[in-house]
Amino acid sequence: MAVTRTFSIIKPDATRRNITGKVTAMLEAAGLRVVASKRIHMTKEQAEGFYGVHRERPFFNDLVAFMTSGPVVVQVLDGEDAVALNRRVMGATNPANADAGTIRKELAESIEANTVHGSDSEENAAIEIAFFFKDSEIVG
Ligand code: GDP
């Protein structure tokens, strides 16, 4: 399996609880490498753009409010089949359904405040990385 790339966000519930290091340690222990990282406070426009595919979902406004409620850490991750590997270590969207040992099972607060975002395909990973990072910011 080749080394590929994915995009991650450590969400506001994790920055608020000061557990971004704990989350990153779980990503690294799973075999992912942080090749770019920055702490930002998303604007409403950024959050609406990033989650544009969910615009028609009933929780869209709540999700945008949550993602702009505090800082986040956006990251680019490299690893063997990185998209699938990251989704495995994240666990199911709803922490109640997540497997033991996953980030969401161990750390998430709720289906909304679920600690991490991870791209769901390599195509979306490329789009999401370009949304937040210039090529020169991805340093390996
Ligand atoms: P993901 O790929 O596992 O993050 O899940 P989705 O793409 O389906 O949803 C995006 C994000 O929207 C999730 O990570 C949650 O933060 C939030 N979300 C998903 N489902 C719900 C829901 O039923 N209610 C609320 N309030 N938020 C949700």
Walk me through the topology.
Blueprint: E1 3-10, H1 12-16, H2 20-29, E2 33-40, H3 44-50, H4 60-67, E3 72-80, H5 82-90, H6 103-107, E4 116-118, H7 122-132
Antiparallel strand pairs: 1-3, 1-4, 2-3
Bound molecules: guanosine-5'-diphosphate (GDP).
Guanosine-5'-diphosphate binds near residues 62, 63 and 112.
Q: Please, could you describe this protein's structure?
A:
With 140 residues, the protein is an alpha+beta fold. The protein is built from 7 helices and 4 strands. It has helices at 12-16, 20-29, 44-50, 60-67, 82-90, 103-107, 122-132, and strands at residues 3-10, 33-40, 72-80, 116-118. A 4-stranded antiparallel β-sheet has the order 2-3-1-4, with helices on both faces. The longest helix is centred in the C-terminal third of the chain and has 11 residues, at 122-132. It is globular, with a radius of gyration of 14 Å. The chain binds guanosine-5'-diphosphate (GDP).
Précis, in short:
This protein is α+β, with helices and mostly antiparallel strands. Helices cover 39% and strands 20% of the residues. It is globular, with a radius of gyration of 14 Å.
